[in-house]
Design goal:
- The complex is a heterodimer.
- Chain A contains four helices and no strands.
- By secondary structure, chain A is mainly alpha-helical.
- Chain A has a single domain, classed as ACP-like (Non-ribosomal Peptide Synthetase Peptidyl Carrier Protein, Chain A, Orthogonal Bundle), CATH 1.10.1200.10.
- Chain B has a five-stranded mixed sheet with strand order 11-12-13-14-17. In chain B, strands 18, 19, 20, 21 and 22 form a five-stranded antiparallel sheet that branches.
- Chain B is globular, with a radius of gyration of 24 Å.
- Chain B folds into three domains: 246 residues, ANL, N-terminal domain (Rossmann fold, 3-Layer(aba) Sandwich), CATH 3.40.50.12780; 101 residues, Luciferase, Domain 3 (Luciferase, domain 3, Roll); 104 residues, ANL, C-terminal domain (GMP Synthetase, Chain A, domain 3).
- By secondary structure, chain B is an alpha/beta fold.
- The chains are: A mainly alpha, B alpha/beta.
- Chains A and B meet through α2 and α3 of A and α10 and α17 of B.
């Protein structure tokens, strides 16, 4: 389940109004989420949740569900 | 044994390094969080020979084109070299991402196969469902698809492969084709540029002089090898020169840009090439704690190339990294294109790049006048002087050469010039006239330096990739709700990115907010099918777009209306 807060952060960064994001959705299925905007999305999530990702953690993410899990993990630590 | 001096092919050059400096690192494949994979000159040649035995066994012959559609992984390099070893012609193509529609991908490869004459595809099993239908397509020239990674653990089918390669190499001449690279375009419009061994090796010699290449230089690159900057500057140049190149998968760099700096620091890299947007990304998007223990003082040249150079990007980069050891004079520039193998001009190593402050009013009339009035001027960054073997002239639209200080089309003659686009005589005739290549770029010469302003045509340059607006307009025009034929795509400057982004203006009869939002999303999704990201969508009522004299919506005029703020009746 992708939280509304994470979804809102992603969509606002990409400047799109609405898009159905599921845990199995991948970045390249989301309109506007490409190699150039990727870093902006990651930085926006870090800022919103006050967390820090390591490069290697971001590289291992296979889909947005993994991203949600990573955010949850960081928040629980 | 080949001495380095009488090598006439790329393979002969590489092999001479394997003999003379066998244990020197040739390619370091950098993987974040893991030990890097290291190919020495000896081990990479041996691995290439292993692959070559399978290629020969598969019946691949001299001058046949092998498209390589493989991710930027550890074995990509020896696979490429194996194709060279048997006199066949390698052409690295972009590995498809899942965003690209399978039909669009296949159409692109089919178009390319007819134009470029692709004979074989070397790829990965994972994309077999996407690739294998191409063999049976009636439009395709592709004879077979092979999966080189599956040959890794099998014994060589040809035992005396070294001798076989020597026999093939002995028959090759410097004028034989060495490689095929594709010049710009998104889907079917890519132009195949065939280069000989002579063109590539002479270019490497001339460009090495321009950047004062030294035996202990080490190149650090995250650039894709399907792009001329990655392929020639960061791969062929070091391999032919016997120096080390460190390669980072472009997808990894995008995920974590700081890995480039980490690699420079750990491996003491001395040279890197970057498109302009990467300066902004590195300067603005990296946390300070990612730079702990990072030292960049080994970098003697950071060469900005493949999209217009912005002085603000250099300033941001220097400001962020000077305390990590970056020197102002390390910020360097280059102007390059696939048609001349790679570089046309290069700024002088060890000297700061020349910035010119130009009077805007005079500039609008096509003349260069230096200005010290900031508010009335614009700064242009020099791309340096033409390298050895290259001549540059500036022509006006009527075909007359212009003196220094006047703006016109950049026209080039080079010893490393292509002979024309492969199987594309009409396009060749448009750009190649009496041995001079008409680049389609606007610029000017001033005190011996070349300044590049932008494209004469409407090509959009996003992060170093050239996109044709007509490709984008074609797919957007098919979105229901768009008035047929009433779409223009153009590049809009994104100052924070240091590059252009794609914008669309489309006419529609829709006027309800909710439907406009849906239409915008459908337009963005349509462009995703050809792997293009649209950043801004401007929806206009019928008859908003200005037409050109040819009766089609004018990209230039309509872009200017949007940029100047003429957005009444526009929804965005």
């Amino acid at each position: 389940m992708i939280s509304e807060r994470l979804k809102k952060t992603i969509l606002e960064t990409l400047e799109i109004d609405n898009f159905d994001i599921q845990p199995e959705s991948t970045a390249d299925q989301v309109p506007g989420w490409d190699s150039l905007s990727h870093i902006n999305v990651i930085l926006a999530i870090e800022k919103e949740f006050n967390v820090r990702f390591k490069g290697v953690e971001v590289m291992k993410l296979k889909n947005i569900g993994d991203l949600q899990n990573l955010v949850d993990l960081k928040l629980s630590n | 044994m080949n001495t380095n001096e009488n090598c006439v092919t790329l393979w002969q050059k590489w092999n001479s390094h394997a003999i003379n400096t066998p244990e020197k690192d040739a390619v370091i494949h950098w993987i974040t969080g893991e030990e890097p994979g290291r190919w020495t000159f000896k081990s990479i040649i041996e691995q290439a020979e292993h692959f070559a035995s399978f290629l020969l066994d598969a019946g691949i012959k001299k001058d046949e084109v092998c498209a390589i559609i493989i991710r930027h992984n550890y074995y990509l390099y020896p696979i490429y070299m194996a194709v060279e070893s048997i006199g066949a012609i390698p052409a690295i193509l972009a590995y498809p991402n899942s965003r690209l529609h399978p039909d669009k991908f296949r159409q692109g490869i089919e178009g390319m196969s007819q134009r470029s004459g692709l004979d074989y595809i070397l790829t990965e099993r994972e994309i077999d469902p996407l690739i294998s239908p191409l063999i049976h397509s009636h439009n395709s020239t592709i004879k077979a698809v092979h999966y080189p990674h599956e040959w890794l653990n099998s014994p060589k089918p040809i035992e005396n492969i070294k001798e076989k390669i020597s026999e093939i190499q002995a028959e090759l001449s410097s004028n034989d084709a060495a490689l095929l690279q594709h010049s710009s375009g998104t889907t079917g419009l890519q132009k195949p540029v065939l280069l000989s061994h002579k063109a590539v090796l002479e270019h490497i010699e001339n460009y090495s002089k321009a950047i004062e290449l030294k035996p202990d230089d080490k190149i650090i690159s995250w650039l894709p090898l399907y792009h001329d900057m990655g392929l020639i500057a960061a791969f062929h140049l070091p391999l032919a020169s016997g120096i080390t190149t460190l390669q980072i998968d472009p997808f990894e760099w995008v995920m974590a840009p700081a890995i480039l700096l980490d690699a420079v620091s750990k491996e003491k890299g001395t040279l890197t090439w970057l498109p302009n947007f990467a300066y902004n990304v590195l300067a603005d998007k990296i946390h300070e704690d990612e730079l702990e223990d990072v030292s960049l003082d080994s970098l003697r040249l950071i060469i900005n190339c493949s999209e217009p150079v912005r002085s603000e990007s250099h300033d941001r980069f220097y400001s962020r990294f000077s305390s990590y050891g970056i020197k102002r004079e390390a910020l360097s520039t280059c102007y390059a294109m696939a048609e001349t193998t790679y570089a046309v001009s290069q700024s002088k190593p060890g000297s700061p790049v020349v910035n010119l402050s130009i009077n805007r009013l005079e500039f609008s009339k096509g003349r260069i006048e230096i200005s010290d009035n900031d508010s009335a001027s614009k700064t242009y960054v020099s791309s340096g002087a033409p390298i050895d073997g290259c001549q540059v002239r500036i022509f006006n639209d009527f075909g007359f050469e212009l003196d220094e200080g006047n703006v016109g089309e950049i026209v080039i003659r080079s010893v490393s010039m292509f002979d024309g686009y492969r199987n594309y005589p009409e396009k060749t005739a448009e750009v190649l006239k009496s041995g001079w290549y008409f680049s389609g770029d606007y610029g000017f010469l001033y005190e011996g330096n070349l300044y590049v302003i932008g494209r004469k045509k409407d090509i959009i340059i996003v992060a170093g990739n050239n996109l044709y607006p007509e490709d984008i307009e074609d797919v957007v025009a098919q979105v229901p709700g768009i008035i047929p034929g009433r779409v223009v795509a153009f590049g809009e400057e994104d100052m924070s990115l240091g590059s252009e982004q794609v914008s669309i203006i489309a006419e529609t009869a829709v006027s309800v907010e909710r439907e406009l939002k849906t239409l915008k999303m459908e337009i963005i999704k349509a462009a995703m099918q050809i792997d293009v990201s649209i950043r801004k969508v401007y929806l206009a009522p019928a008859r908003w777009l200005i037409k050109s004299s040819a009766g089609k919506p004018s990209r230039k005029a309509n872009k200017e209306r949007i940029i100047s703020g003429e957005t009444e009746n526009i929804w965005s």
